Amino acid sequence: MKHELHCRGFAAALLLAALPFSTARAESVPLRLVILGDSLSSGFGVPEGYGFAPALATRLRADGYRNVEIFNGSMPGDTTSDAATRLAADPRGYSADVAIVELGGNDMLTATEPAVVERNLNWIIDGYRREGTLVVIGGMLSKPELGFVYNVTFDRLYPKLATRWGASLYPFFLQGVFGHPALMQEDGIHPNAAGVQRIVAGVAPMIERNLDAAAARRKRVDARQATADDAPSAAPARFPF
């Protein structure tokens, strides 16, 4: 798998990108929340300002999370392979304190082997966890037409990855939305503006818990750095005159 060849490079570049933030970070520096997904989180088909990212930003501000910078790196049509390719090409651009990984729907719609989907997602999450990024996985469910074996294998990969990497799992990104005409666009695949609001309402508490944990981690890092800066320097070695 070509993405596996870049795994160390991706993780290393993410770590380097995080270094300026991991030393003496002031509280004024916002936490960076990155959304890595497909059309479900890109704002596809809804009026500008009503997509997942702006709706989530509004919710976070209302809940008191005002020191958060959101970067929406979602691209309509992206498969897990496409997203991995983008990360390999620009790891610094996707560096984050918290990352929402919402991928796999397009793989499923094209009946991509679950093992391939799992391998790609594993590579993506591995890179983030090596950096210390907290990950929220937006899960997907397969359509019944793909058959029992595919359904079971595909649906199990998200809980498996969450357990493996200690990531938070929102089991189905379209939970409470899919199958409800009032919350879906006419294509029956993408949420409308009301559906986006429903998604945000469901997943926001999980995202906020991860932002809290990231903020606490930042304080611990800053405290350690301050302690190191205040520590007395070692006495110079005495020359043997």
UniProtKB/TrEMBL annotation:
InterPro entries: Ester_Hydrolysis_Enzymes, SGNH_hydro, SGNH_hydro_sf. Pfam families: Lipase_GDSL_2. Residues 35-197 form the SGNH hydrolase-type esterase domain. Keywords: Signal. Residues 1-26 form the signal peptide. CDD domains: Lysophospholipase_L1_like. SUPFAM superfamilies: SGNH hydrolase (SSF52266). GO terms for molecular function: phosphatidylcholine lysophospholipase activity. This is Arylesterase. It comes from Methylosinus trichosporium (strain ATCC 35070 / NCIMB 11131 / UNIQEM 75 / OB3b).
